[in-house]
């Protein structure tokens, strides 16, 4: 299967990013094709709400989102990861989601895995997981699992936690209906 991992973390090798890599390791070991996009490295501007994309199927802006959107449409499985900032997803991930507008109707049927990290316990991360699940469910995707890396803040604190094992196991199980 073709898997696209989108890391919404502003930190390279931060906790969300490490969980993405562990998911990818598990999926690759099962023979899946995996690509990871770090949104922090992309130039993706905010949606202009001009709705020109409704007529053309493409955004009027020339930035990295056209390539990201093409990869999202081509993938069979999406993994979306975000740290929790002020009780919500990272700004990088939210801006990317807003820019799905030109192809929102083409995103149904995909399997989606969500990774959420933060210094709070799981109860403090649920809102982000629920919000991301609601967005992708409304687009017609199938949210297969939400992985919570809780009680992690400093870079690398997620290493050795149950969330690492869970991310690896989820990557290993891609393609199997839970």
Question: What's a concise summary of this model?
Answer:
The protein is built from six helices and five strands, in the order βαβααβαβαβα.
Written overview of the protein:
It is a single chain. It contains 6 helices and 5 strands. It has 178 residues and is α/β, with parallel strands linked by helices. It has a single domain (2-172), classed as Rossmann fold, CATH 3.40.50.360. The protein has a 5-stranded parallel β-sheet with strand order 2-1-3-4-5, with helices on both faces. Helix 1 runs parallel beside helix 6 (162-172). It starts with a strand and ends in a 6-residue tail after the last helix. 40% of the residues are buried.
Give me the secondary-structure topology.
Layout: E1 2-7, H1 15-29, E2 33-38, H2 53-56, H3 65-74, E3 77-83, H4 91-98, E4 111-117, H5 122-138, E5 142-149, H6 162-172
Parallel strand pairs: 1-2, 1-3, 3-4, 4-5
Helix pairs in contact: 1-6
């Amino acid at each position: 299967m073709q898997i696209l991992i989108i890391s919404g973390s502003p930190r390279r090798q931060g906790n969300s990013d490490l969980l993405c890599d562990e998911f990818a390791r598990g999926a690759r070991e099962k023979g899946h094709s995996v690509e990871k996009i770090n949104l922090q490295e992309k130039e993706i501007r905010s949606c202009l709400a001009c709705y020109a994309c409704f007529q053309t199927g493409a955004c009027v802006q020339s930035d990295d989102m056209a390539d990201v959107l093409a990869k999202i449409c081509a993938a069979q499985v999406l993994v979306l990861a975000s740290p929790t900032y002020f009780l919500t997803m990272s700004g990088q991930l939210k801006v990317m989601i807003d820019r799905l507008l030109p192809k929102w109707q083409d995103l149904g049927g995909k399997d989606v895995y969500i990774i959420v990290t933060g210094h709070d316990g799981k109860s403090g991360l649920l809102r982000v997981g629920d919000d991301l699940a609601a967005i992708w469910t409304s687009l017609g995707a199938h949210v297969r699992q939400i992985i919570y890396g809780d009680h992690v803040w400093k870079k690398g604190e997620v290493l050795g936690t149950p969330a690492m094992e869970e991310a690896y196991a989820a990557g290993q199980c891609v393609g199997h209906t839970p």
